[in-house]
Amino acid sequence: MAKSFEDFKLNRQILNAIEDAGYTVPTPIQQKAIVPILSGQDIMGIAQTGTGKTAAYVLPMLMKLKYAQGKDARALILAPTRELAMQIEENIRIFAKYTDLRTVVLYGGLGPRTQITQIEQGVDILVASPGRFLDLYLAGHIVTKSLQFLVMDEADKMMDMGFIGSIHRILEVVPRKRQNLLFSATMSALVEKISGDFLKFPLRVEVAPQATPAHTVSQILYPVPNLKTKLNLLQHLLKDDEAFQRLIIFCKTKTVADNIFHFLERKYGPEQVRVIHANKGQNTRINSIQSFKDGAVRILVATDVAARGLDVADVSHVINFDVPIVIEDYVHRIGRTGRAYKSGEAITFCTEAETYYLKKIEKLIRQSITKTEIPEEVFIEETPYAERQAMAKEIDLQKRKENPDFKGAFHEKKLKNTKSSRPKPSNKTKSFQKNAKRSGR
Ligand code: AMP
Q: Rounded to two decimals, what is the model's pTM?
């Protein structure tokens, strides 16, 4: 079995791009799928997001397509959501950067004109939602005769979203002679059926699902209405310094991390708390982590990016001040507790706008996280108008992300109108700090 990417006999351009991306060792699905795909086999891959499945098919596909050729697409990748289509395109862009291969992404929810222009300029790889692909094909903008590769990503989700009709229709309009790859997180009867219609003598490759959280970690979820209440709840929890001996507070952005840090520093003094994020110099980060590890500092505030790859474990509590948007980070975050402390606790604060990611996390870890009510002593704040608006907008965007063929003209208009009433980042930061001060009674 290949131990490094060099062993796959990929070309130099691709190997250099892999190196730039910082990948050193192929993941298990890449180990299993790349060679058979290079040899031209049909594949049925059972692998979840987070396993490296995208590169598992993108790398050999780029290797086979090599360079820009002709005008019509030679590869079609079907994806159920706009979000996934964009992620796939991002992967292609990273690995194809030393080639001249052309990729166009097609999804609904916005006018097709730009997409049509891009196709007309010549394309090698199309990444598309089934609905938008068909719309453009039927309108005569896509020529399928050169397609050699057909990839169906997250096939289970496509079935759940009712795309089976569109997929059958697409299978009718693509050339018969082609290589087919299907990836799915789970195997359902419908996926089994579509793979029967779609794949020829496929090789089945399967990898174990993502690491599930250790049993020693108890997971708790507090539905919280807004930011101020999150701060009140955090203060309340930290009062119990016997239980909360050594904790990491995870935040989704540097700004939030800095604000929480200043808030805690004022409350507990500079000796008790450190912050790490990408804007802090390497030395500062190392020093902060060292003092936290030594036990000199009780609280570490961190962003996911800064915490990735750092050896900070053995903490009594992980507090997710925000639900992570990169859902795999949830498993990484909570994996830092429940080791030396036999029963670690992972506590997540979740607003209504964050439940979208929470649901995805629960699906990923295949468990639901126990909901707990905010303790009575914690003051529940009113949600300010600007925060309410921002959350409503976020929820609207999430809906549009989930439904790539959503014709959202009305919503788009509505969003444009609400744009001006959104707080500017600087104001938001200021009001956050003010709130933090106020709640720091
Ligand atoms: P995916 O399952 O394709 O969504 O990939 C999950 C994450 O793993 C992405 O952030 C990839 O960039 C990353 N990834 C994929 N393959 C590797 C690898 N061999 N080494 C390091 N990171 C990887």
A: 0.58
Last residue of a domain, one of 206, 238, 269: 206
Return the percent helix, strand and coil in the chain, to nearest 5.
45, 15, 40
**Number of independent structural domains in the chain:** 2
Distance (angstroms) between ligand 1 centre and the Cα of 52 equals 4
54 lines ligand 1 (CB under 6 A): yes
Which residue has the least CA distance to atom 19 on ligand 1? 26
Q: In 188-254, at which residue ranges do the beta strands (DSSP E only) sit?
A: 203-206, 217-223, 247-251
Measured in Å, residue 50 CA sits from the centre of ligand 1 at: 6
Question: Tell me, what's the pLDDT at 331?
Answer: 83
22's CB contacts (< 8 A; 6+ apart) are none
Give the CATH number for residue 74. 3.40.50.300
Q: What is the mean pLDDT of residues 29-39?
A: 95
Tell how far the Cα of 185 is from the centroid of ligand 1, in angstroms. 15
186 and 245 share a domain?
Answer: no
DSSP run (H or E) holding 358: helix 355-365
Indicate if ligand 1 lies below 6 Å from the C-beta of 53: yes
pLDDT tens by residue, 301-347: 998 877 765 666 678 899 999 999 888 788 878 878 865 556 789 99
Closest among 120, 122, 119, 117 to 70, alpha carbons compared: 122
On whether residue 415 sits in a domain, the answer given is: no
Regarding whether 292 and 246 lie in a shared domain, the answer is yes
Q: For residues 235 and 105, state if they share a domain.
A: no
Q: For 141-168, how does the pLDDT look when each residue is reduced to its tens digit (9 = 90+)? A: 999 999 999 999 999 889 888 899 999 9
CA of 30 to the centre of ligand 1 (A): 10
Domain of 15 in residue numbering reads as 5-206
173 in a domain, yes or no?
yes
| Cα 104 to ligand 1 centroid, rounded to whole Å | 21
Do 179 and 245 lie in a common domain? no
Work out which ligand 1 atom sits closest to the CA atom of 25.
19
